[in-house]
Write a structure and sequence with these properties.
- Helix 1 packs parallel to helix 3 (about 55-65).
- This protein has a four-stranded parallel β-sheet.
- With about 120 residues, the chain is α/β, with parallel strands linked by helices.
- The longest helix has 14 residues, at about 20-35.
- It has six helices and four strands, in the order E-H-E-H-H-E-H-H-E-H.
- The relative contact order is 0.19.
- The chain has one domain.
- It starts with 6 loop residues before the first strand and ends with a helix.
- Helix 1 links the parallel strand 1 (about 5-10) and strand 2 (about 35-40).
């Protein structure tokens, strides 16, 4: 299954996302390309994103919500969820919504977007 054209897929080799300004850079790129979803490889997220107590995840996700863009975290995050019941719960809750998804791969994202 192919992703819709309105999904910006981020390069896995880019700068790690750690601060709200990094999210704003991606949001600007998404808007410039007419995207309504941004797919970020899990490896691009700084470990602070997965440590919920840092507030990094909340700040980044809020930026996407403010601009009404969907955010998909793509890839295996099991090393992070294995040690945090709070993170596991947050991932489960996010995946029931329609603004933030944690998916295994781009094929799963395409499938979810297709409805």
């Amino acid at each position: 299954m192919e992703l819709p054209a309105d999904v910006l897929v981020c390069d896995p080799q880019g700068e790690p996302l750690r601060e709200p300004r990094h999210a704003l850079d991606l949001i600007g790129e998404a808007w410039g390309r007419g995207a309504i979803w941004v797919a970020v490889p899990a490896g691009r997220l700084h470990d602070d994103f997965f440590a919920l107590g840092t507030g990094v995840a909340g700040e980044i996700v809020q930026k996407f919500a403010n601009y009404r863009l969907g955010l998909a975290i793509v890839g295996d995050i099991s090393r992070h969820t294995a040690g945090s019941s709070a993170l596991r719960a947050w991932v489960g809750e996010a995946n029931r919504g329609d603004q933030l998804w944690f998916v295994r791969d781009l094929e799963e994202l395409a499938s979810r977007r297709a409805g």
